[in-house]
Amino acid sequence: MCFPIDALPPIPPIAGAAVDSQDLVLRAADGNRFAAFAARTGQPGGAGVVILPDVRGLFPFYEELALRFAERGINAVAFDFFGRTAGVGKRDAAFPAREHANQTTPAGLAADVRACVEFLRSPGGGSCSSVFSLGFCFGGGHSWQQAANGHGLAGVIGFYGRPGPSQSGAPGPAQRAPEFKAPVLALMGGADAGIPVEEVEMYRQALQEAGIEHEIEIYPGAPHSFFDRDYQQFAAESEDAWQRVLNFIQKHRQN
């Protein structure tokens, strides 16, 4: 797992910020019903973010992350990957997430992302004119791939996603880079045991060759899942990564 069930994002709340939030059940075009959590800002600026969690799916880390975005004027919706196999109920630490993650498909995830994008563009989601995707680990790689899935995204962001092919051999972000239609932000750990720096540099080269605007930041010494409030030794890296996310959204949003 990327984050433990009690992990929290390393982002300070903004006291007094006006935010509405709600649990949702959204429906994809193929009929899939899936759980989501939406946070809506009191000071809309036209931007929205679809949050793709790690392999555990939707849990409190990502709900709080959605709130932190809303406090900063960005509407957000975090969604669960496992509506097709596990339903829409809340889950605890014993949930066999890996078993369900192995049953997801790129097409199913793309359909769910599309439903989230449509929600953010609707009045109920904040009528967002610029929508981004943001993912972590399992969700990070899939977030980048949404640039090739016709959602009209303003940008795609991933924390320590896998750039190469999946374990099943399906093309990964580096292989699909020529299909991308949005700029890319990648935030990576230089000491990530599962994603060598060489693989990240391969991704950088693929994006360059495809002519895709991109920013890839590798934090030396940072492990996988460094973006965690409990990783105090990587607080500076986490703060820098969060600021890069906000700057990327500000740069690419429509004013």
Give structural notes.
The protein is of the alpha/beta class and 255 residues long. It has a single domain (19-252), classed as Rossmann fold. The chain contains eight helices and eight strands; from the N terminus they run E-E-E-H-E-H-H-H-E-H-E-H-E-H-E-H. It has helices at residues 60-71, 83-86, 97-101, 106-121, 138-145, 173-176, 197-210, 235-252, and strands at 19-27, 33-41, 47-52, 75-79, 130-136, 155-159, 184-189, 214-219. The chain has an eight-stranded mixed sheet, sandwiched between helices. Helix 7 links the parallel strand 7 (184-189) and strand 8 (214-219). The radius of gyration is 17 Å and the shape is globular. The model has no long low-confidence stretch (mean pLDDT 95).
Brief descriptors of the model:
255 residues; alpha/beta; Rossmann fold; eight-stranded mixed β-sheet; 8 helices; 8 strands; 21% strand; globular
